[in-house]
User: Which sequence fits this backbone?
């Protein structure tokens, strides 16, 4: 089975850079995804890493290291609208089942 | 526009009552999912379906049932056997992913279920 861990909360100021970590214990998975969820809203897809390394999408980047069982989401030039919860997720090898981490609540302060 | 529609937005259940949450998608996605989210928590998988007329239990399937008679629809029934149903329920869909290719999940706006 899969088990993912994330910090419960992170706080940063506008314009700063913040890193949200995701560590996992897994028997096998295809890739690491990141989703954003604003309060009361639906999660939306942000980024995906199939291979080790860095993927960049605008202000957001995501990193995966399978050897370290570790990944992170990097948010640059933080804006107030980035205040939300961020979830890492993996798709189990051999199927379509997704497992989500517990989420990290990001608060961006003025 | 293509997307996923969940209804109702809010739902109240009486003791001993079964209730059904609707999920419809027009994205032509093969796979559909139901998640439960409790306050301040992550998403836990209830059921998922990769193809019409087939579905698999997730981590917390007890007290829930689903059907997948049409590609577009994946309703979830919360039965009276589910003793703690109060939660935010999210439906999602995706294309079936092959190997390490990514097919992100698209989520509906959710249904909030409460006990009367």
Assistant:
């Amino acid at each position: 089975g899969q088990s993912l861990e994330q910090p419960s909360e992170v706080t940063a100021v506008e314009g700063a850079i913040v890193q949200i970590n995701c560590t996992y214990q897994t028997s096998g998975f295809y890739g690491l995804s990141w989703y954003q969820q604003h309060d009361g809203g639906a999660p939306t897809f942000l980024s995906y890493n199939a291979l080790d390394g860095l993927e960049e999408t605008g202000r957001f980047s995501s990193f995966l290291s399978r050897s370290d069982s570790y990944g992170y989401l990097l948010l640059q030039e933080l804006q107030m609208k980035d205040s939300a919860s961020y979830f890492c997720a993996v798709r189990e090898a051999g199927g379509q089942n997704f497992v989500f981490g517990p989420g990290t609540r990001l608060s961006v302060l003025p | 526009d293509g997307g996923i529609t969940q209804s109702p937005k809010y739902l109240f259940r009486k003791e001993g009552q079964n209730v059904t949450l609707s999920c419809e998608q027009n994205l032509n996605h093969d796979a559909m999912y139901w998640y439960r989210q409790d306050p301040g928590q992550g998403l836990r998988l209830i059921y998922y379906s990769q193809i019409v007329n087939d579905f698999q239990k997730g981590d917390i399937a007890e007290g829930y049932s689903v059907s997948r008679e049409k590609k577009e629809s994946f309703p979830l029934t919360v039965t009276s056997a589910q003793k703690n149903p109060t939660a935010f329920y999210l439906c999602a869909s995706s294309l079936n992913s092959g190997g390490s290719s990514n097919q992100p999940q698209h989520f509906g706006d959710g249904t909030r279920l409460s006990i009367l």
